[in-house]
Automatic annotation (TrEMBL):
The keyword Transmembrane applies. Keywords: Membrane, Transmembrane, Transmembrane helix. InterPro entries: CruF-like (IPR007354). It comes from Mucilaginibacter gracilis. The chain crosses the membrane at residues 12-30, 36-56, 63-84, 104-123, 135-156, 171-188, 195-213. Pfam families: Caroten_synth. It comes from the Bacteria. This is Putative membrane protein.
Length: 214
């Protein structure tokens, strides 16, 4: 007997997420193929974007608008960060995230959408009724993820800091920007989504935590 279509979509999406993160870990752990896997990081992000959009209950103008807003806000914040050294601090992007516009990888806008959407969905499952508390705790979740990401990002040429390590300003910037965009997620009043977004967020935590062992 077949299950509901939404459940089938979620199962397919979660399987892809887990499979590709496992494959990615293997690729990063084996020195001989690590350069190849670094080159396909942008394609991995695009695949995760496609999986998340596929898993969303209803693809409509509302979702497209949210994607556009988070992409533009995230990209603009990174432009300010790289060129004016505001928000996050003094840093620049390496080659790993792929094609750049104004020295900012286009994939960074996609990544901000994924981070905000997945955390927003994760907080939908938290059971927290207070909107402001969901936003604040969601922003904390993303800051903690960035703590895991930063050493890996520097090591694998995602981005680099003028001071070699991420300054405190970076984490404050992440908290404020994440809170702002999570507030926008809440304002869109998306219905409770499948657990795909939450699974992708958890997969990111596990992925970057394990990369500290490389």
């Amino acid at each position: 007997m077949e299950g509901p279509p939404g459940l089938k979509k979620a199962t397919i999406a979660i399987t892809i997420i887990i499979l590709f993160h496992i494959v990615g870990l293997v690729g990063f752990f084996i020195p001989a193929i690590q350069p190849l896997f670094l080159k396909i990081v942008p394609f991995h992000l695009l695949l995760m974007f496609a999986v998340v959009v596929y898993s969303h209950q209803v693809f409509n103008k509302k979702l497209v608008a949210f994607i556009a807003i988070t992409f533009v806000l995230g990209f603009a914040a990174e432009w300010v960060g790289v060129h004016l050294h505001l928000i996050f601090g003094n840093y620049f992007y390496g080659k790993t995230l792929g094609l750049k516009l104004f020295d900012i990888p286009l994939m960074i806008g996609v990544n901000w959408f994924l981070l905000i959407y997945c955390t927003g969905v994760f907080m939908q499952y938290s059971g927290i009724k207070n909107l402001n508390l969901r936003v604040i705790l969601g922003a904390v979740v993303l800051v903690l993820l960035d703590v895991l990401i930063e050493p890996i990002a520097i090591r694998f040429d995602y981005w680099h800091w003028a001071g070699l390590t991420a300054p405190g300003q970076n984490y404050l910037g992440w908290f404020i920007l994440s809170g702002l965009m999570l507030g926008i997620f809440e304002a869109f009043k998306f219905s409770r989504q499948s657990s795909v977004g939450a699974v992708l967020l958890i997969a990111q935590y596990v992925f970057f935590a394990l990369l500290h062992l490389v």
